[in-house]
Design goal:
The complex is a heterotrimer of chains A (332), B (421) and C (322). Chain A is mostly helical and 332 residues long. Chain A contains 13 helices and no strands. Chain A has helices spanning 2-29, 35-40, 45-55, 61-74, 90-125, 130-143, 147-156, 158-167, 188-226, 229-236, 241-279, 284-294, 297-325. Chain A starts with a helix and ends in a 7-residue tail after the last helix. Helices cover 26% and strands 19% of the residues of chain B. Chain B contains 13 helices and 14 strands. Chain B has helices at 80-88, 113-116, 131-134, 141-150, 157-170, 176-180, 189-201, 219-236, 247-253, 271-276, 281-288, 328-332, 376-382, and strands spanning 38-49, 52-64, 69-73, 95-103, 106-107, 124-127, 207-211, 239-244, 256-261, 264-270, 338-339, 346-347, 396-399, 406-409. In chain B, a hairpin with a 2-residue loop joins strand 4 (95-103) and strand 5 (106-107). In chain B, helix 4 (141-150) packs parallel to helix 7 (189-201), helix 5 (157-170) packs across helix 7 and helix 7 (189-201) packs parallel to helix 8 (219-236). In chain C, helix 3 (101-137) packs parallel to helix 6, helix 3 (101-137) packs across helix 11 (270-276) and helix 11 (270-276) runs antiparallel to helix 12. Chain C starts with 6 loop residues before the first strand and ends in a 9-residue tail after the last helix. With 322 residues, chain C is an all-alpha fold. The chains are: A mainly alpha (332), B alpha/beta (421), C mainly alpha (322). Chains in contact: A-B, A-C, B-C. Chain A binds chain C through residues 15, 18-19, 22-23, 26-27, 29-31, 35-36, 140-141, 143-149, 152-153, 156, 159, 263, 266-267, 269-270, 273-274, 277-278, 288-289, 292-293, 295, 300, 303-304, 307-308, 311-312, and chain C through 147, 150-151, 153-160, 162-164, 166-167, 170-173, 194, 247, 251, 254-255, 258-261, 271, 274, 278, 281-282, 288, 292, 295-296, 299-300, 303-304.
Chain lengths: 332, 421, 322
């Protein structure tokens, strides 16, 4: 098992390196950061030359990559270079945004996974019941709705919800603009109140589609497993039904769902991007949209690399979990 | 021998099962006790589907005492597996079971899951067909065996583990203590099946149902598994139901055989009797479709047609559409399972008496002789100008990766010469 | 495994539960497999209904859009025309610029549908070809392709396409020509990974089957083996995946356009429409709901059709083992 983990870790390293290279190529494909600036007004040659020197696109591709990579590892992620965009350093912006987004993503995913699994198991054991049909219907509906629409709809429930809460004395609990910039204020419970008010709607939003995915998958996986030979053997041994379901069936049904969760992480990030955009949070989502729109090469690059590392890390964890759950994999 | 008191009255009123009745251990039984252990009376199983009812099992009756081996033979679709699943109570919810199954006089039909589970793996245990998928891949073999033991005995994990190792040893697995810590995928097919057998005997059952236990295995392994099962029967005096479609297995292993077709029993009796003097055309067809080395140059006798749909069974005998002896009466009314001229030999056929005089199965089912070359070598020697199609000399094939290479060789003198005809 | 050109005796006698309606269906007649599949699909009520709805949507979007009296550039400047609620004259209402909403929505639907189909076709084709190659040749081909796939997956698809298509201009620096082809192209180039995995897995197992070995023994070359023998057996999976791909493509393109990194004027799409009308949901909800309903309808119908096809190809009947 340990050998497996180490091997997986070692393989991840070249993947990370290749990923940075890919990201760099992508950023270059975005085009000239100075494109808009050059055409907005007539610019003098000297001005153009100096801006180009700052951006550094006049150098060959690999040299630029090399410079960037060396600096990146040392912690210098360059700055916003498009003229007019405040010349802030990239790294702090990404880090603060990452902190905001990571919390959202982790909450929503964990919740979606746990609830999704539970619902999936119940759906499978009570196949074709009203509960099963209802959940299936909801899942189908959610799969066919774009996340941004769900987000818009959920967000639109905030004012009436707040009105109602205010009328019963609970105050305007829901905040739709994201975590307060200066941090939470007041005593502990007030902070909890603020915190949950901020996170509730976006978490529900991000939770929805992942939940649909996990519950459907868990249901399908459970059904397969419940029809398998070894479950029949477990019953033939004289085990209690509950033990058969939770010890034998569920444990095996979990395996493909872990794979799905690992593959889903990219979609979750996308979902976070969209959710933040709708709710106006200052997270990774708004950051990247702005950066791509303005063609901020170093910002986009930093964002892509950080996201890639995150995803690779998640995949690694999922792989390890998978090997823990399924002994057949460890022979690899 | 202690007298077994009955906990249900003669009409089979459903009470709770008394587990003290079961698994009394081989010490509590001896070979001479043949009061019927299992009595199946008029068992019928139907499955409700959206297109109709599938009558998988129809009016099956038999009984079994300890140490007896009953073979149930039939093709897919004959109802053999469903009847055994009915005994275990492992049928899906769509199944409708009528009739009676009594184990030690206690009625099993209609018992809820939680009652029957006291019996499963304990008084009655079952071995399934495919060893590759019968064991849970994520738990060690020892763990699964211990679980089977602890489901019915309140002992510590250590004690259960020791029992598991003991069971593995009993089925002939070498280094049982090492093997118990391994996962099923580290076992070969034959060993896995042995592990499954070990799991089924760990609680010393009185009845072992083996549902095609060797079908998925190589022939050599097959023989070992069957031998293991017989040995266990000898040592524990358990009764065995052996379900198979392989008549060879039946011949080598069982005391009595029951042939099933179209969901019902069509012939039953002592195995030597039934093989020597079959009294039902289907049985004759079955026997005739086995390759027989004494009948060189003769074709096998397949039975034309296909088994009946269990949803729309024809009126009358289910075998009538394919039977060479069928007359109008056969197509009108289904025959009863009646005693034939031989002792304790029953057949479900209107015309069983006409079968007394038939010598070879070929006489019943049409077959022609085909041209067969008697002596290939002589033929080649007599015609030296015939072209040689293949000449295989000194061929070597290497397989594998790394150290474990497998080499298959054709020796220098292997040459195949085929006649172009 | 079945060779699709083989005629099979449909559910004749046998132990499996049959899907016959007893009296009119001759169970013993031999049938082509495609007919069997078609029959099963036609009996799947939900899929059939979805197919009809889908076709109606497409017709409505294209023909209705072309024939509608208001064009999408029309602006009703005759005073009071802005933010009109749905009425007989403007069934979907009007928007902030007094333009007829239905014309906008239908045009948006046209683009969304075309893009979805192009993306589905492209991604499925790429996924199938790469998957077949990886599965058939194995070895280093498989390694390289699979690593490449992993690499593509480390960057969320939405952002990947947004970055790639930025150079063709997005909402801010939009030139005179639209960019829907670019969007469709890049989406297609990014979304093939799941199809790749599935086809690769199937090819890996199919290539070991006896009929492939037999074909090879008869002198079949790689092309023949892959295209004539292996891939036809994956056709069911490919078709199902393609329909699901349409369903997903609509959603992703809408999301991309919504955040501003996708289709931009003069092209439009349902996502772009919602982007423009995002804040109208409380005061002028029709501007949000109509595009929304169209997106969901397209995606849902494609989903159900895919489900129906999956069931038609491989009905999961509860087999009764006797």
């Amino acid at each position: 098992m340990l050998r497996y983990v180490i091997r997986r870790l070692l393989i991840s390293i070249p993947i990370v390196i290749l990923a940075t290279f890919l990201c760099f190529a992508l950023v270059t494909a975005m085009g000239d950061p100075l494109g808009d600036w050059k055409t907005a007004k007539p610019r003098t040659e000297a001005a153009v030359a100096s801006e180009e020197a700052i951006v550094g696109y006049n150098q060959p591709f690999f040299t630029r990559y090399g410079h960037w990579a060396v600096n990146f590892i040392q912690g210098d992620w360059n700055r916003n270079v498009v003229p007019g965009d405040n010349n802030q350093a990239v790294k702090p912006q990404i880090m603060s945004a990452l902190w905001v987004t990571a919390k959202l993503v982790l909450f929503a995913e964990l919740l979606a996974f746990v609830v999704g699994m539970l619902i999936g198991v119940i759906s499978a054991v009570r196949q074709y019941s009203m509960f099963d049909y209802t959940i299936t219907g909801i899942a189908f509906a959610l799969f066919s709705m774009p996340l941004f629409c769900i987000a818009i709809m959920i967000k639109s429930t905030a004012p009436p919800l707040n009105n109602w809460l205010q009328s019963i004395g609970f105050g305007r609990w829901i905040t739709t603009s994201g975590p307060p910039i200066g941090g939470y204020t007041g005593g502990f419970w007030h902070q909890v109140y603020q915190f949950t008010g901020v996170y509730t709607l976006p978490v529900i939003c991000l939770f929805s589609i992942s939940f649909a995915l996990y519950s459907r998958f868990q249901r399908g996986s459970m059904l397969d497993v419940l029809n398998s030979d070894y479950v029949r053997t477990a019953q033939a041994k004289g085990l209690k039904q509950s033990r058969v379901i939770f010890r034998h069936a569920f444990r095996n049904a979990l395996i493909p769902v872990v794979t799905v969760a690992s593959l889903n992480i990219g979609a979750v990030f996308t979902g976070a991007v969209i959710t933040e955009r709708v709710f106006g949070w200052q997270g990774m989502g708004t950051l990247i949209v702005k950066a791509v729109t303005n063609i901020e090469p170093w910002m986009v690059l930093g964002w892509l690399v950080v996201t890639a590392i995150f995803i690779i890390l998640f995949n690694l964890i999922a792989d390890i979990l998978y090997a823990y759950l399924d002994p057949r994999i460890r022979l690899d | 021998m202690t007298a077994r008191h009955r906990t249900s009255d003669v009409d089979g009123v459903i009470g709770t099962l008394n587990p003290d009745e079961f698994g009394a251990g081989s010490a509590g039984r001896d070979a001479s006790d043949d009061s019927a252990l299992l009595v199946v009376d008029d068992l019928s199983v139907g499955f409700g589907t959206e297109d109709g009812i599938v009558h998988a099992v129809r009016n099956v009756s038999f009984s079994l005492g300890s140490r007896q081996v009953l073979g149930i033979v039939g093709e897919s679709g004959s109802g053999k597996s469903v009847s055994s699943m009915a005994i275990m109570g492992l049928l899906p919810k769509t199944a409708r079971v009528t009739g009676s199954i009594k184990f030690h006089g206690q009625e099993l039909v209609g018992q809820p899951y939680n009652e029957l589970r006291k019996l499963r793996g304990n008084g009655i245990s079952m071995i399934f067909q495919d060893p590759m998928t019968s064991l849970n891949p994520v738990f060690t073999v020892g763990w699964q065996l211990s679980e089977a033991y602890r489901a019915h005995h309140n002992v510590s994990k250590k004690a259960a583990w020791a029992k598991s190792v003991e069971a593995l040893e009993m089925v002939g697995i070498p280094q049982p203590d090492r093997r118990a810590s391994q996962y099923p995928h580290e076992f070969s097919g034959g060993m896995r099946q042995r592990a499954v057998i070990a799991m089924s005997i760990i609680n010393d059952p009185e009845l072992i149902i083996a549902d095609e236990p060797t079908t998925a295995l190589d022939v050599t392994v097959q023989a070992q598994i069957l031998e293991t099962l017989l040995r266990i029967r000898d040592e524990t005096n358990a009764a065995v139901i052996m379900i198979t479609h392989d008549l060879g297995v039946v011949a080598g292993m069982v005391d009595r055989v029951q042939v099933m077709y179209g969901g019902t029993v069509v012939e039953s009796g002592v195995v030597e009797e039934v093989f020597a003097a079959p009294r039902m055309p289907y049985t004759i067809g079955l026997l005739g479709s086995i390759p027989n080395p004494t009948l060189v140059g003769k074709r096998l006798t397949p039975i034309k047609g296909a088994p009946p749909s269990l949803m729309n069974l024809p009126k009358g005998c289910p075998f009538a559409p394919r039977c060479p002896l069928a007359i109008d009466e056969c197509r009108e009314t289904e025959p009863e399972l009646a005693e034939t001229d031989r002792n304790a030999h029953f057949a479900r056929c209107h015309r069983w008496s006409d079968l007394v005089t038939i010598e070879h199965p070929q006489q019943l089912f049409d077959q022609q002789e085909i041209g067969v070359v008697e002596n290939p070598a002589a033929l080649t020697a007599a015609n030296p100008d015939m072209p040689i199609l293949y000449d295989v000399v000194d061929v070597e094939e290497r397989l594998g990766h790394g150290a474990s290479d497998t080499v298959t060789e054709a020796g220098p003198s292997d040459s195949n010469e085929e006649t172009a005809s | 495994m079945t060779n699709p050109t083989l005629e099979v005796a449909a559910e004749a006698s046998g132990a499996a539960v049959t899907d016959t309606s007893a009296s009119t269906f001759d169970t013993t007649k031999a049938r082509r497999q495609s007919v069997v599949i078609l029959r099963r699909f036609l009996r799947h009520r939900l899929a059939m209904a979805s197919l009809i709805v889908f076709i109606c949507l497409v017709l409505f979007a294209f023909i209705g859009g072309a024939l509608w009296k208001y064009s999408y550039t029309f602006e009703d400047t005759s005073g009071g025309g802005r933010y009109l609620a749905p009425s007989g004259d403007h069934p979907f209402g009007t928007d902030a610029l007094a333009a007829d909403s239905m014309a906008q929505v239908l045009r948006g639907a046209q683009f969304s549908i075309i893009i979805a189909f192009v993306v589905a076709f492209l991604s499925t084709t790429i996924g199938v070809v790469l998957g077949a190659l990886a599965g058939y040749f194995r070895g280093w081909v498989d390694s390289v392709l699979s690593r490449f796939t992993d690499l593509v997956l480390v960057i969320p698809a939405l952002v990947l396409v947004g970055v790639l298509s930025r150079n063709s201009g997005s909402a801010t620096s939009g030139g005179g020509s639209g960019n829907w082809q670019i969007i469709a192209l890049f989406l297609g180039l990014t979304l093939w990974t799941s199809v790749y995995r599935v086809i690769r897995g199937m090819t890996l197992s199919l290539r070991e089957k006896e009929f492939v070995e037999a074909a090879r023994a008869l002198g079949g070359g790689v092309g023949r083996l892959v295209f004539r023998h292996i891939l036809p057996n994956t056709l069911d999976v490919i078709i199902v995946n393609a329909t699901i791909a349409v369903s997903q493509a609509v959603l992703i393109e809408a999301a991309l356009s919504f955040i501003g990194l996708g289709v931009h004027p003069p092209n439009t799409s349902l996502g772009l429409l919602i982007n423009r009308n995002e804040l109208e949901i409380t005061l002028h909800p029709w501007l949000f709901w109509f595009p929304f309903v169209f997106i969901v309808a397209i995606s849902l119908c494609a989903n159900f059709i895919g489900d129906g096809l999956r069931d038609a190809f491989d009905p999961r009947q509860k087999r009764v083992r006797t």
